Structure to design on (221 residues):
């Protein structure tokens, strides 16, 4: 199957694209976009996280659940919204933690493209969603695919920082080689849980300290 995705990912995931579940997933997603329903993100942005962050550039992995499902928000990067869109509450809390942890403000808009280009894989577990219906495309095969993505990173890259926020993301830890990478866990940045361990987790400084100690370039958060 010819999947339009950045070449290094295309190569490492080529076997995945030929599996029955992925063909069924592709049929489902195509039918959803063609049905007249509003699906996010725009089809051209489904693999945005991969196209902006080739496999050999990956230094940090942040895992979200599924894309934002309100107009103008999702553009293929977890927790990120396009420039000019109001900051979602979880992203506001991420920025608060960065300022507290590092002593400076992060970027002022919600577009995290600059992180992706530095090697932060902003990966949602499910890559598409129907408007106004959270988790509407879960259980269709995306989770199997993105688990394969995490496995590919773990097998092909060392000294990567995995930021696992909330119980859903933390379940992915078992896929990662813990001896060769850094796994950071905390509560989710959602307003419902941020005060139960996300604030004060120091993940951003800890990530950069780990990268520097392994002769990797730190992220400009």
């Amino acid at each position: 199957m010819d999947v339009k995705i950045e070449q290094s990912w295309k190569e490492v995931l080529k076997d995945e694209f030929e599996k029955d579940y992925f063909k069924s997933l592709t049929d489902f997603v195509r039918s959803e976009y063609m049905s007249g329903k509003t699906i996010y993100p725009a089809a051209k942005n489904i693999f945005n996280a991969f196209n902006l962050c080739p496999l050999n550039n990956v230094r940090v992995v942040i895992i979200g659940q599924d894309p934002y499902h309100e107009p103008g928000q999702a553009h293929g990067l977890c927790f990120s919204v396009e420039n000019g869109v109001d900051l979602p509450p979880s992203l506001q809390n991420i920025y608060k933690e960065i300022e507290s942890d590092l002593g400076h403000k992060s970027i002022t808009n919600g577009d995290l493209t600059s992180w992706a280009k530095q090697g932060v894989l902003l990966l949602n577990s499910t890559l598409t969603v129907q408007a106004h219906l959270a988790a509407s495309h879960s259980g269709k095969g995306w989770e199997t695919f993105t688990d394969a993505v995490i496995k590919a990173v773990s097998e092909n890259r060392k000294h990567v920082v995995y930021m696992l926020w909330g119980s859903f993301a933390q379940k992915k830890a078992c896929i990662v080689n813990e001896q060769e990478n850094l796994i950071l866990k905390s509560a989710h940045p959602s307003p419902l849980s941020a005060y139960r361990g996300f604030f004060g987790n120091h993940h951003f400084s800890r990530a950069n300290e780990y990268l520097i100690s392994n002769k990797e370039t730190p992220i400009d958060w």
Notes: The radius of gyration is 17 Å. The beta strands are 39-40, 60-64, 120-124, 129-130, 161-165, 182-186.
